[in-house]
Design goal:
single chain, alpha/beta, YbaK protein, five-stranded mixed β-sheet, three-stranded antiparallel β-sheet, 8 strands
């Protein structure tokens, strides 16, 4: 299953002419683990959260710099989402077809109906290059900003770019 996800992600990038650099590594589940597993000399490191609204009707992928502690209560107020909480593993699999530890902005390629909303921190959106998993946590790709914008355009997602509120 993981090999299928990786193949799907790489095929998407190549079929759409999105340039990338790929780094394979042992499975990682946190930003700290990927930092230890592979030495990537550049690119904004990211942390990705998958949340849902109180009623479970809206699902949101949040992409922030790796060291940002997201204030979900403030985010809900700022965006009009109201109270948000982490979505279950089942919802993550159903909506983005990724497993915990592999949440990534590339998950939108598995959401052709555009059901999942995307919120990206301005620091990530403005970075020249961004690191993300290609649907699996055994590899990291570095994408140029132009490639990320093309990815969202091709999948029909219009990210909301904001300064995501932090608890620190």
């Amino acid at each position: 299953m993981a090999a299928d996800r990786l193949t799907r992600a790489i095929r998407f990038l190549e079929d759409n002419g999105i340039q990338y650099e790929r780094y394979d590594h042992p499975a990682v589940f946190t930003v700290d683990e990927v930092t230890e597993a592979v030495d990537i000399p550049y690119g904004q490191r990211t942390k990705n959260l998958f949340v849902r609204d109180k009623k479970g009707r809206r699902h949101i992928l949040i992409v922030v710099p790796f060291d940002k502690q997201v204030d979900l209560m403030a985010l809900g107020s700022q965006t009009g989402l109201g109270r948000v909480s982490f979505a279950s593993e089942r919802r993550l699999l159903d909506r983005l077809d990724v497993e915990p530890g592999s949440v990534t902005l590339m998950g939108v390629i598995n959401d052709p109906e555009g059901v999942v909303e995307v919120i990206i921190d301005a620091a990530v959106w403005e970075a020249d290059r961004v690191r993300c998993h290609p649907l699996v946590n055994t590899s990291t790709v570095v994408l140029e900003q132009e490639g990320i914008r093309q990815l969202f355009k091709l999948t029909g997602h219009s990210p909301t770019v904001i300064d995501v509120p932090s608890t620190c």
